[in-house]
Specification:
- This protein is α+β, with helices and mostly antiparallel strands and 153 residues long.
- It folds into two domains: 70 residues, no CATH class; 67 residues, no CATH class.
- Helix content is 39%, strand content 17%.
- It has a five-stranded antiparallel sheet with strand order 1-2-3-4-5, covered by helices on one side.
């Protein structure tokens, strides 16, 4: 049995209904990532390399005896990393699969004429206008107008 057969299938309309929320969330993700990169570079330049794990584990608490300003910035960094992780969780809770955080690229599983496909959306696009085969990825995107009734069902 294909592992994806137990997954939920989305129509183009269902995926499009999620675009406004995803646009807002990826806007926040992109901003948070830029701030985290900046703060990370600042902490490293001051001799402290913060541990970061966005897999769901709490970011590691690091060495004691840090100067107050570095300890404060490390704490802010950990809080921002947790907020980013939460945003990413909320994005995946919409039913999409995140393919690229930097580009805001996501897919939803769909069906067309009995075959499984991915509906594809990228941050900045106003709607889900593309799909691709399961094994072709972003480079193989095709217009959803080619789908049966452009529904992706």
């Amino acid at each position: 049995m294909n592992q994806m057969q137990s997954e939920r299938y989305y129509s183009v309309a269902e995926a499009n209904n999620l675009v406004p929320e995803l646009s807002q969330r990826f806007g926040a993700v992109i901003q948070m990532r830029a701030q985290l990169h900046s703060m990370y570079r600042s902490l490293v330049a001051r001799g402290h390399t913060p541990a970061l794990d966005l897999t769901g584990a709490t970011p590691a608490v690091v060495a004691m005896d840090l100067p107050d300003d570095i300890a404060r910035d490390a704490q802010v960094f950990r809080g921002m990393a947790e907020a980013l992780r939460e945003q990413l969780e909320q994005i995946t809770e919409t039913g999409c699969v995140i393919r690229d955080i930097d580009d805001g690229l996501v897919d939803w599983l769909a069906r067309d004429r009995g075959r499984e496909i991915w509906l594809c959306w990228k941050y900045g696009e106003t709607e889900v206008a593309y799909y691709h085969e399961l094994n072709s990825g972003f480079a193989g995107r095709r217009p959803v107008s080619e789908l049966k009734g452009a529904q992706g069902e």
